Fold 8-oxo-dGTP diphosphatase MutT.
Amino acid sequence: MKTIKVTAAIIIHNNMVFATQRGYGEFKDGWEFPGGKVEGGETSRTALVREIREELDTEIEVGELFDTVEYDYPAFHLSMDCYICKVISGKLVLKEHEDARWLKWDQLDSVDWLPADIGLIRKLAEYLQNGSKG
């Protein structure tokens, strides 16, 4: 099975996390943490900075690795590095997503997360509930 390596930003501000809704492709309308594919020669961190700049017109600071998700979709295996991030500059302009929301820890279940992201939600809720830095 083909493995796709991606990276995702868990952007936190005022103890809320930024979630985006996909606007295209097979998983259109599903909710996710923004990010994208790691290209040849990139680290997960450099790919994440590039992807957020391209998708959201925003500069981020990539902090700690929160988790690495390994998930089998029917057509491929996803390996996703998820980092705690904060906005350095920019307004989080949606260029590829159709919607976005800032969610508190007790609102994380209010959106329809993509299957690979679901496993992060309980851990992230605990992290936010315990007063994350952000």
Q: What stands out?
A: The mean pLDDT is 94. The radius of gyration is 14 Å.
